[in-house]
Amino acid sequence: MSKSLQQVLQQIDKLQKQAEQLRAKEVSQVVASIRQAIDHYGLTRQELFGPALANTRRRRTAKDRAGPVTPTVERAARRRAN
Q1: What is the pLDDT of residues 29-76, one digit of tens each?
Q2: Is the separation of the CB atoms in 14 and 76 below 8 Å?
């Protein structure tokens, strides 16, 4: 039995949400590990980012946090929205 386009799009949506949850979990683990290393070694902003970036702050956007999205998934999402 062949899947309908709607079923495939729903499956893509479900998998995308799973991927986002897994990425969020991995990121939190990495951040915790990095913070632990920073505390352990007493690293400063300048040591981490160099003098040019030590005093700057960059806001992360939702797109930065989401990670890369394949063109196919983007097209599917746009189709669903229309």
Answers
A1: 999 999 999 999 999 988 888 887 766 666 666 656 565 555 565 666
A2: no
Nearest to 11 by CA among 82, 74, 73: 73
Query: Interior CA angle at 62 toward 56 and 51, to 5°?
Result: 15
Q: Give dist(CA 65, CA 27) in Å, integer.
A: 9
- In whole angstroms, what is the distance from residue 32 CA to residue 38 CA? 10
- Rounded distance between C-alpha atoms, residue 5 and residue 30, angstroms: 37
User: Which residues have CB under 8 Å from 37's CB, separation 6+?
Assistant: 43
Which pTM value belongs to this model? Answer: 0.52
